[in-house]
Amino acid sequence: MPTPIPPSITTFTTTQLTLLAAELAAETAQSTALLASTAPSALARAGLALTNLTLASQRTGLGGRIVLELEPDSAVAGAEGELPEHGLRVGDIVAVQAQPAGAARKKEKAESRERGVEGVVCRVQAKSVHVALEGDEVEVPGGKLWIVKVANDVTYKRMTYTMKDMNRLSEAAYTPVMRVAFGLSSTSPVPSDVPVPTWLDPTLNASQKEAIAFALASREVALIHGPPGTGKTHTLIELILQLVQRNQRVLVCGPSNISVDNIVERLARHKVPLVRLGHPARLLPGVVAHSLEVLTRTSDAAAIVADIRKEMDAKQASLKKTRNGRERRAVYGELRELRKEFREREKRCVREIVAGSKVVLATLHGAGGFHLKGEKFDVVVIDEASQALEAQCWVPLIGAGKVVLAGDHLQLPPTIKSLNMKETEPKGAKGKEEKGKKEKGITLETTLFDRLLALHGSSIKRMLTTQYRMHEKIMAFPSQELYESKLVAADAVKAWLLKDLPFVDDTDDTREPLVFWDTQGGDFAEKDEDDTQATTLLGDSKSNEGEAALARLHVARLVEAGVSPADIAVVTPYNAQLAVLARLLKEAYPGIELGSTLFPLDTCCLGLESPLSSRPHVGTQSTWQR
Ligand SMILES: Nc1ncnc2c1ncn2[C@@H]1O[C@H](COP(=O)(O)OP(=O)(O)OP(=O)(O)O)[C@@H](O)[C@H]1O
Description:
single chain; alpha/beta; Elongation Factor Tu (Ef-tu), domain 3; binds adenosine-5'-triphosphate; helicase; ATP binding; nucleus
């Protein structure tokens, strides 16, 4: 394949700005239309909303944010007071609104639907959902409430700023990473005589060691290609520890919170001075202790902030006691002053904590926040890099001296919403220029990982080849079709079967690692989703009752043989089929995991889960590129 001609940074950034604007417009239009035209009950059925909630409690959470605990109204709660099935997840941005009653609900029009108070879902329990509100002066609506997931444009803003910043750079200011990424230089040759590192983790396999040694020795760019279950994260942990040992300062990023938290959890065990940036509501519980917000309370530097926080809490509490407008305004005024002082002090404290951390971890867009302004890092490590837009990667990379990207370009790329938008042929000189951009292949779905690989070839990449997740018969097909038959199943997993689990019987279903059930023929008719509202929500979806019944039968047999429902997952490419499966399986087998192969249930609907916002982790076995 001929080496593609890379775009100039100016062409790249200008085109990205246009493409990002189109993507944001597509996403906003979809989500606005959906929220405006769909009744709360339909949004709830689609997993995007929870209706009939009441306020159980209100407290001051991290960073002085107000946290609401919402419970189902006693009239509609399940037998145990539980919330109905829903797709809201920690980290989702939601609007909290007063629920329109009876006739008002029917009359509700797009323009009358306000977004209400916004917040981040910070805890989801069987009987309640907690929302940390955004903003300082928020009036919580009274009465019956409902919450609905809304789109989030912070990621776009960060990418847009970054593209504009890059666009303004003079050529003399281009970093070595930029020069390599845009074909102005080749990567520096990796010396062949670098000493083998003293490994901290004795379990590393040969391909992992080679990838780490290569990443350590590379000067500008290194790619680590990790097919599913090959220990990409495992490898990155050792790499980060090795870098810290070499006294390097490291910024670790991923496209989603979960990708970053996975690393924080594993890295924290090694007692490295680290800090995790990001809204604590979006972090895994085990990670919150390392978040900047918690460190600003618990570290030595935190004392200067503590007093003022106490005073603010007391003022906030006094607000609840007064309904008098003038008094409330006065308290708001005092709170505003206190907050100003609080932020000043917090800024100083934050600066100290960040400067003292050898490893800083954030989402790609989180790295664009003010906390990292002026901070310098020797290496930026990006995990799940093939799930991230290139513009997103440049947020932490703009000043980076070196980058290590880990990912798998053979799994699905990030989802782009504006892809199917109608394009008009540009004309004249402008047309030529536009056409030129396309020829240079600037698209949103081409990732930095893809582009670097195409530009510099596989010499800048090392592949992890031993996988620790699948029986070798399950691995055989993807290995052969996608990974040039290079995957090897680790001894521990290559022959494992369900029947080998404790308390599981040896049956036809537990003895085989991979079973195909042929459903061709007249008995398994497919149904296209024909309910208009459901179609809007579920997209062009299909279902098949017969196949769902077969899946249920198989699950029943596995459970009968002793497999725990909590160890079973059923996946399908169609969201309509997911709904059928949920009906058949959820109640009969609590704990069973159901999902669409491409997106978890909560991301099935239009416009509300941006691939550009914190994207949930998608099960890798099911996302090989098709
Ligand atoms: N060298 C090793 N020896 C033993 N087990 C390993 C080794 N490397 C990875 N594993 C195990 O393999 C599994 C997958 O590892 P990890 O989560 O790091 O992989 P990954 O490639 O990041 O996964 P994903 O497919 O989700 O991207 C984990 O259970 C991990 O403990």
